[in-house]
Amino acid sequence: MIGDMEKMVAVGLVWGATNAIMRRGTLLWDQALKSTSTPPPSPLQSHLHKLLASLKNWLTLLSIWQYTVPFFINLSASVTFFAILSHTPISLTVPVTNATTFAATAVFGMLLGEETRVGHALFGTGLIVLGVWLCIMK
Questions:
Q1: Using CA atoms, how far apart are residues 42 and 51, in angstroms rounded to an integer?
Q2: Which of 16, 60, 20, 67 is nearest to 38 (CA)?
């Protein structure tokens, strides 16, 4: 099971890193949507037009490589997560992986220059690391 712990932490690290990077991609997507602003939909606009507009926005998001590449890496980590989950207890796998993801997202966000309350983020990350360590040592 010790090998599985490393895999759980690795999945959490990949998820956390890609979360922070995808956030940057979505900022680029926001800029792209604002630069091609469309008039607000009229109340009489059909559901089909709304659906097509949503589909177009989603395809625009997928066309931004700064979002798409980390998204697919994130999905591959999800496949690994489910493979780990198939033979480890859910009561251990989910808390370890999610706690690691939360901490990694905060750390990678800081490394990418996001405005963060550094003291609070580091304190929370320290508590998460302690909690993960307690789960692993149990």
A1: 14
A2: 60
